[in-house]
Amino acid sequence: MSWRPQYRSSKFRNVYGKVASREHCFDGIPITKNVHDNHFCAVNARFLAIVTESAGGGSFLVIPLEQTGRIEPNYPKICGHQGNVLDIKWNPFIENIIASCSEDTSVRIWEIPEGGLKRNMTEAVLELYGHSRRVGLVEWHPTTNNILFSAGYDYKVLIWNLDIGEPVKMIDCHTDVILCMSFNTDGSLLATTCKDKKLRVVEPRSGRVLQEASCKNHRVNRVVFLGSTKRLLTTGVSRWNTRQIALWDQEDLAMPLIEEEIDGLSGLLFPFYDADTHMLYLAGKGDGNIRYYEIGSEKPYLSYLMEFRSPAPQKGLGVMPKHGLDVSACEVFRFYKLITLKGLIEPISMIVPRRSETYQEDIYPMTPGTEPALTPDEWLSGVNRDPILMSLKEGYKRTSKIVFKAPAKEKRSVVVNGIDLLENVPPRTENELLRMFFRQQDEIRRLKDELSQKDIRIRQLQLELKNLRNSPKNN
């Protein structure tokens, strides 16, 4: 029998990436040069937020999506943090509420006025202090309003109930810095990757580790839940230092279902999963390309589709929620690409080519909307509920009726599980000690330079005084 290649029929085989024209990009933005492995960008249907380079403290821009083109250098910023901003995330249920975390150990909640910022914003509606070190990640719960997760360099994940403005749970099972957090569809499970080379599946309310994988051959960096398929996908590095992805069964992390090497580049691979189309997008930090695959329920599980290529390297990528896409153009995904060298934010639309201009129901199934399924008290009591779905057929134009009300707070000690989080500080890591050492060396050099400049100035003044005394007029 002659060999024949196996062809898969897929409605997404011809998906292509379309870059927005220059007038629909955001130009002139001083994108942060921080090397922290995050996207530094967050998008929703109304606003684009980008972490910017700033002298002293940390700041980020919030720009209405329709305000494209060149952004003025004096455009208003959110600049209330005392340290560099490391992560920002929009509330999935209230479109003008954004959370940020920083090197100053705080998590802050900001309320953006209608139409965007008119002046610099320094006062957050809520300041959350519970971490003893800088905070690298924030994530909103996918189905519950006002539940926020934060991960700090103190190796702890805190669960905040924003109705009371306090941490209500603490996940303390990690032995090193947490690199990534991802929720399953109903938010009943949390997957984390850690610098200790372990992948964990955690029940967040109890903090119990349900599954744990020690990834020696596949050093994990990023993890994402693949919708309701009970599978996880991780990106990382193989033992030969090649970039690699692995697929896991969430109920058995003993061995990955498949491992696939991508290439030999060194940049971190960011995974993005679209549960509606079962498509996986892989974008490398410092790369210009975005690969995309289709996830199946049977072997080989992962089918390569195509690759979007661009010469400009990306520092990070923001992703538009489903209800913000252009369904009339058959747009199934949209990235906002950060190009640091040009100070440019470039929208990239992933489009399914269709001749018909009618609504394509097969590529736009019911999708999670902007209504929360649970209140914080319900979720904390143990209730799980799938997200409330909505149709994109008529185009999504409704604004959320939920309003954020910040609780009144007094500064005091933060006690969770009988531990005062602000007093219980873990030992510093080697990298932190080195960073402190180099900062002190830089400060010593700066002080020495100032002293030498002052010495030179003193000598100049002494010489001028001497010349003045020896001048003929004085004689």
UniProtKB/TrEMBL annotation:
SMART domains: DUF1899, DUF1900, WD40
Sequence ranges assigned to domain DUF1899 in this UniProt record: 5-69
Pfam family, one: WD40_4
WD repeats: 78-120, 128-170, 171-212
GO MF, one annotated term: actin filament binding
Sections of the chain in a coiled coil: 444-471
Stored PROSITE patterns: WD_REPEATS_1, WD_REPEATS_2, WD_REPEATS_REGION
Keywords, ordered alphabetically: Actin-binding, Coiled coil, Repeat, WD repeat
Matching InterPro entries: Coronin, DUF1899, WD40/YVTN_repeat-like_dom_sf, WD40_repeat_CS, WD40_repeat_dom_sf, WD40_rpt
Domain of life per record: Eukaryota
Family the entry assigns: Belongs to the WD repeat coronin family.
Protein name from the UniProt record: Coronin
Species: Lophotis ruficrista
